[in-house]
Amino acid sequence: MTLTARAAARMYAALLGEVDGLRLLSPAGVEAAAAVAVEGTDRMLLRRHAKGLGHFLGMPPMGGETTAFGHHGSGGSVAFADRARGLSFALTRTRLVGPDNGTTRLLADAVRAGA
């Protein structure tokens, strides 16, 4: 999937609540989607992750918060929603960086601090 950071952030915002008259999930649906469905070592990523229904939970770029769910993309992009703060965030890259690049987490933490 290819989309802008703004579009990804709006999609995650619409998962949390209404955006321009559209809500993608009910509050119960958000709880179900963000609950741990599976936890363990991902066979492709070779790392331990908790996953909800279609989303990673509490990844480091999301601040490691268990209230955050989302997905990372290639080259260091990430998009997520933080249920506790009512915050959605997305970062897309024009240059690829490694998955352990700390820039994404620093930006997310700065946005979260201002929320």
Describe the secondary structure blueprint for this structure.
Elements: H1 5-16, H2 27-34, E1 38-41, E2 48-51, E3 56-57, E4 68-72, E5 78-82, E6 87-91, H3 103-114
Antiparallel strand pairs: 1-2, 2-3, 3-4, 4-5, 5-6
Defining key terms:
single chain; alpha+beta; globular
Plain-language structure description:
This protein has 115 residues and is α+β, with helices and mostly antiparallel strands. Helices cover 28% and strands 22% of the residues. It has 3 helices and 6 strands. A hairpin with a 6-residue loop joins strand 1 and strand 2 (48-51). The chain is globular, with a radius of gyration of 14 Å. The mean pLDDT is 81.
Please outline what is shown here.
This protein is an alpha+beta fold and 115 residues long. The protein has helices spanning 5-16, 27-34, 103-114; strands spanning 38-41, 48-51, 56-57, 68-72, 78-82, 87-91. Strand 2 and strand 3 (56-57) form a beta hairpin.
